[in-house]
Specification:
Blueprint lengths: L2 E3 L9 H9 L6 E2 L11 H11 L4 E3 L12 E3 L6 H4 L6 H17 L3 E3 L2 H11 L6 E3 L21 E5 L8 H9 L8 E5 L4 H9 L6 E4 L4 H10 L2 E4 L8 H8 L4 E4 L4 H5 L4 E3 L4 H12 L5 H12 L4 H14 L6
Parallel strand pairs: 1-2, 1-3, 3-4, 5-6, 7-8, 7-10, 8-9, 10-11, 11-12
Helix pairs in contact: 1-13, 6-11, 9-12
């Protein structure tokens, strides 16, 4: 059969990691050999022509891209709805793409994949489709992320943030919370991200230049050691479809302080401390209690390891395959 999987999404982080891992299960699928990237303006047309020319029966994307014209069954993966809740983070062209091109295709699809129950509810509402046609396959944790292993060497205790620097990530809230900590508490801040000019300005304004280290371009083995060495991970995001750093940290034995918004309480369960992401003072207060030893750190680590054990790429891959079969898109 002519089944195609859009391996062009494959990469190290975010959707790229999901794409790489899910593709391991779909060995009977062919790759998309197009030179265009999935988000390129002309890719929808090129993809449509390719699928029609190759008489495709099924196209599965680990991302949200779709062919502009349908000639086969299409299954896409929608990880979040950031474009709806944070329109300033998307372009006018991309917003139009979602509304005028992608949404009609998703509405006609027999199956759509997502990563959390929160995202599933959002998809059902915005796309106006039956909830039975949206399946949560989850995310997994790569083998590098374990509690056993070396710890990152840093001269002082540090609080950790892992993720992008975008408005919904709310990193400025973390910087301001650390700035407002009691003078007797002076942890460093380690950011694993691609630095931006805006981030550097926030660090200066918070007076944290001497206490902040930025790491970028590190691999999973290095990132795991950074998780293990941290006092805690703080994830102040205002919106997440899943929140992979939270469970990666837990798998490495790193306590987590998470925003109480969107999917994070679902993903973190009872293993995390939750704070109001709209309140710098609330985050500061929870950080103060944690750093002062007023919480059961060992208990958090134990619960975190248990919570992280629920997420595996093997289970996610199996769920994708089973869902395609149940939707009669693949033979049993």
């Amino acid at each position: 059969m002519n089944y195609f999987y859009d391996q062009r999404w494959c990469g190290q982080h975010g959707i790229g990691r999901f794409a790489s891992e899910i593709g391991k299960q779909l060995t009977d699928f062919r790759d998309i050999p197009l030179a265009t990237k999935p988000l390129a303006a002309r890719d929808g047309v090129a993809l449509s022509k390719f699928l029609r020319r190759n008489q495709a029966k099924l196209y599965v994307s680990p991302g949200f891209n779709v062919p502009w014209k349908l000639s086969c069954n299409v299954v896409v993966s929608i990880h979040d709805m950031i474009h709806v809740h944070f329109p300033k983070e998307t372009s006018i062209a991309k917003a139009a793409y979602y509304r005028l091109i992608q949404r009609p295709v998703v509405r006609r699809s027999a199956l759509t994949l997502t990563v959390s129950q929160y995202s599933r509810r959002e998809i059902v509402q915005w796309y106006g489709i039956d909830e039975e046609r949206v399946v949560v396959v989850g995310n997994g944790i790569s083998e590098s992320f374990t509690a056993a292993g070396p710890r990152f060497s840093h001269p002082r205790p540090y609080i950790l943030y892992v993720g992008a620097i975008r408005p919904h990530k709310n990193v400025e809230c973390l910087l301001q919370a650390i700035k407002r900590l009691d003078a007797t508490m002076t942890p460093d801040l380690l950011l694993v991200c691609r630095p931006t000019a805006e981030l550097k300005q926030w660090i200066v304004e918070a007076g944290l230049t001497a206490r902040t280290t930025i790491l970028s371009g590190i691999d999973d083995t290095q990132l795991a050691s950074v998780y293990r060495g941290a006092e805690c991970l703080v994830f102040p995001s205002l919106y997440e479809g899943f929140g992979l750093p939270a469970v990666e940290a837990m798998a490495c034995g790193c306590p987590t302080l998470l925003s109480d918004r969107t999917s994070l309480p679902e993903i973190g369960g009872d293993a995390a401390i939750y704070f109001d992401a709209a309140s710098v003072d609330d985050l500061r207060d929870h950080l103060h209690r944690f750093l002062a030893g007023a919480v059961d750190r060992d208990g958090m680590i134990k619960r975190g390891l248990q919570q992280a054990s629920q997420y595996s790429w093997e289970a996610a891959r199996r769920k994708v395959r089973d869902s395609l079969v149940q939707a009669n898109l693949l033979p049993a």
